[in-house]
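#onboarding

Welcome to the new folks! Below is a worked example of what a typical request in this channel looks like: someone posts a single protein sequence, and someone else replies with the predicted structure as tokens. Don't worry about understanding the tokens yet, we'll cover that in week two.

Example request:
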Amino acid sequence: MEADFFTQVAPATANKSKKAIVIENMADGKVVPIIGNVFMNDLAFGNHDALTKGWASFTRYPFADQLHDCARIAQFASVSQAGDGLFDETRIKKQYLEFLKAALQLLAARDAKVSASRRAEVAEQARNLTVSEMARRFDYPALEDPTQNPLLLLAQLPLPVYITTGYHDFLEVALREKAGKEPQTEVCIWHEGLRSIPSIYNNNQGYEPSVQKPLVYHLHGLDLYPESLILTEDDYLDFLNNLAKNSYVNHARIKQALTESSLVMIGYRPRDWDFRAVFRGVIKPRPLGMWKDSVAIQLEKEATGQEYLQKYMRQAMFEVEWMEPGQFIRELYEGWEQR
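Example response:
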């Protein structure tokens, strides 16, 4: 027998990139995108960092000239506005949502594509609109051009489960209005006070996520329910603590998706609480034997931390791709179309 005989039966995936493996796994419905809040904000508001700077100014954050994330600013605001130290945890979340609505109206005022009559109509109804509803009235993010809104391409992929740490329903809108699907929204019950939020699993015992009726799981809350938002640093710590104690990723289908699928993290930055809570609380604790080939798409390439991040992500079988998230989604979509 020739010495190299058994090399002919090497695994077919041995020389394939993680991205190629992810594209193959889509055929079996074994891919779950996890979409970051930063990326979602970039799509709807134009620039997440500019939005954060505005949030710092809005709350009179004393270190507005420093690069701090929304969680730290919200933590400061929630404490500094408490007066005697007794504060309503939901109040700062409602304030943040009102800030986002004001930001949308400012964007629309500078946008020649938004008519004066539409702006006036939205302003009159603003009090009763969610951020998601107001964004849709202004067509943010746009639903006609995939180069401006890569969610339109992501929505057309044959995926039964999507997870997002974004607070808004931009993904559901893309799935429903442009891909002709029937997305089902689920909000993570990360503390006992959220038990009253409706669940698709309570109302429809026979529901199983599918390509036509995909599940969109809001891990860090949804703007329709301000109390559900994971916004301050204390919220993130409570979320991690409750995950460890009570496994608040609270139904079997999400756990199954996280353990049996390739995960694609889209639009995260390692310094943000958004990323750290997902990676440490949800991804890394998965049983070691269940880890699949996965990809993390970073929003920015940090030269000083590149090697560190690659090693850090390898702990959970992630390969880091350094590219703009929209470009990666386009390549994923084109790869699926051309498979």
